[in-house]
Amino acid sequence: MISRRGFIGKVAAAAACSALSAIPALGADLDIPDPVRDNSRLDRLVPLIEPRLDLYNPHTRERKQVLFFGATGYNRAGIREINYLLRDWRQDEVVQMDVRLYWGLAAIRTAAMRDGLSGEIQVNSGFRSKATNDYLRSEGYGAAVNSFHLKGRAIDFVVKGGDVANVARYAQWLEIGGTGHYRGRFVHIDSGKPRVWFG
Questions:
Q1: Whole-angstrom Cα distance, residue 35 to residue 57?
Q2: For residue 23, pLDDT beyond 60
């Protein structure tokens, strides 16, 4: 399982080494929302999160291990690599994803590793073009008309070796934004308003 207490307790010493107090913005010139949500648990935990992702896309069989934030700020090349792995692979379209999702996944990865898991995040869906979203809807997959995936603000995933229900509960506790628990299949997170649903 993913332990909230274990995550906070075992990495608290890292806070003294970080000047971050909330999620930093990637750039004011980008058409994405400010990643900060005042007083959310995710923002408060930023000093404790290792900003690294270990991602696997089962559709393209691509893997990436990326440190996306460091002493000098965001690793722009690393961010581009993550964006590419999360692209709409059907249409080969890439957008800048909301970096709040990356911090959320990094928090989940950190907690998973503290519980003895590898921390690998297996991504089912990141960005979706309208063409892909319409196709999924026509095939009965239940994709929302105004899905946050269309805006680069949602990710569906599983943690390798992790229990879907535990991961969903932890994602909800983090207050990343919206959390969808698709029982036994995957977890959805987005950077919209806090809300929870089951699929």
A1: 24
A2: yes
In percent, how much of the chain has pLDDT > 70? 85
Phi, psi of 126 (to 5 degrees): -120, -110
| Helix pair 4-11, 99-114: axis angle to 10 deg | 90
Are 51 and 68 in contact, with CB atoms under 8 Å apart? Answer: yes
DSSP letter for each residue of 110-156: HHHHHTTS---EEEEE----HHHHHHHHHTT----TT-GGGGT-EEE
Query: What gap in Å lies between CA 18 and CA 13, rounded to an integer?
Result: 10
> At how many degrees (to 10) do helices 164-174 and 99-114 cross?
130
Q: Given CA atoms 133, 135, 140, 141 in this order, what sign does their dihedral have? A: negative
DSSP code, position 48:
G
Average pLDDT, the chain: 87
Contacts of 120 (CB under 8 A, 6+ apart): 54, 55, 56, 159, 160
pLDDT in tens, 125-149: 999 999 999 998 888 887 888 899 9
- pLDDT tens-digit series, residues 64-76: 999 999 999 999 9
Cα–Cα distance between 18 and 29 in angstroms, integer? 26
Q: Which helix (H) or strand (E) holds 197?
A: strand 195-198
